[in-house]
Amino acid sequence: MVTHRGRWTLRDRVDSIMRALPVTVPPGTAALTVQLDHPRDAGVLDLGCVGPAGFRGWSGGARDRYTITADWATPGYLPGELEPGEWQVLLRLHRVPPDGLPYEVTVTTSTRAPAPPAGPEAPPRPERPSRPDLPEVDGRRWLAGDLHAHTVHSDGAYTIDELAALAVGRGLDFLAVTDHNTVSHHPWLPAASARYGITLVPGQEVTTDRGHANAFGPVGWIDFREPADRWLAAVERAGGLLSINHPLGGDCAWRQPVTTRTRLVEVWHSGWWDRTWGAPLAWAQAARSGVPPHGGDRTVQLTGRTRVAGAPVNHGIYRPADPDVAPDDLLASLAADGYTGVDSGPIGYLGTGELLTRRLTEAGVGLAGGWVDLRFADPDGFAEDLAQLDAALDVFAAAPVDDPRFAPRPTLACPGNPARAARPGTPTDLASALPAAAWPGFAARVQQAVDRCRDRGLEPVFHYHLGTDVETEAEADRLLELTDVAICLDTGHLALAGGDPVAAVHRWAGRTGQVHLKDADLAAHRRVRDAGGGLAEVVAAGGFCALGNGDVDLAGVLRGLDDTGYTGWLVIEQDAPAQGRDLDRIRADQRDNRRWLAEALR
To answer: Which phi and psi angles does 503 have, rounded to 5°?
Structure first.
């Protein structure tokens, strides 16, 4: 076993962003395992491997561990005999904080190869949707495809089989699989192509901190450490094509010098927020005539069905003024941990108007929606609260949107009912429940708020919630019967109120407008209730715990959402108390929650 440890500094990064740590592999080695440890909340180190004979794999920041054997390797890495001699563990110092980044790399060799880990079963081949009726052009027909997709061989969420099945289900004829800086996926593409009836084009997204480019075709591995001109020369020499990706893409924008421009350029990408932006097309026009433009998307957004958001409530933020976590810090943390969206939290916390747009754009996240409680049970109070709703709709309507399916969802809800908040969840305190005679008027006011949202071009959802007039599954069902509002399916609140989140996914299929993915600790809730505590005490006691640590069948929920074709935001929530919270633990939990979901979706 060999261990390298130290502390990378900004000066190290300036001197050389790529670092190679030597490892001697003795004769007879059957397996090589590398483990990288560093504080992920502080910085990012990308990971790879080179053997005496050349490239053996790359996983970037997607993994902290890999194994290479003669017969199998961790996705992103190439299996094969482990030739004796000096190997190198590659580290790219992607993000290093001002005070430096400690790290430890442990390399273990073995004369006996471990068994390969079991992978998921290949999904069945789906039915292909009917093709659109498009006219032929000079005897040529249109094909549907995507030229930018990732798998578990880099930072994607799906296996190659899962990706192929999703593409076929969306009606694609071809799909370029372009994992970051690796070609480990290439040998698996032909079999998956045949199994699912789709052309999978081998590719590699050549990825650096100064720009990305897709190499299309069976051209072998393109060394991202070389200058960009050499990428183009190598690809064209092997009969492939090179395309510059998302030339205007924040910190992934193209800044590489080239003497010969590529024949392809990606002028549409999921990271661009506003359909009215003219800059991408202007960039393409400036390239040169005859440069074919194309669009691309990320693997987890291939189907356009889900994106993942975080929320200020996870940090105990319930009021917009004087928060313990600054908005820019929260957005930067979410983006670094892989979230692509954020719930607004209390209206005004993230800003309004141009300030909100700037913050969202700079962080590269979208606005998933936000909580607006109205006094639906009180006619006079409701009338007064409509001004509050209008102010919230002003915020949501001004937020940048790149896809209408992921526009902000006004999250309508009731304010707290003190009697129910004192005894939240199951067993339900029916004495403080809304009387049957009050339901028609209550529902009419909900419908009035719904229609007001729609008049502004926004589609709202209704959030049942512990300690409010709509808390239980039965109460949510009643509201759905009396209105046409979509439901916000909050798995944690439903579980603590005695509901079955998995069954609700199927029963509310077609009426679910947003999902708040939340785990719940039934034992913690029971202890608080038995001690006479209320909702605030449930939250403080950890009634809403980190994903995978509680009693909600979240895997079943995710399967149900997939089966029912849910489209929209998955908002990860873990309600935190407003006072006495541990912000370091909260940040760690939110990072772990995002990782848990990524693993669960694989």
So the answer is: -65, -35
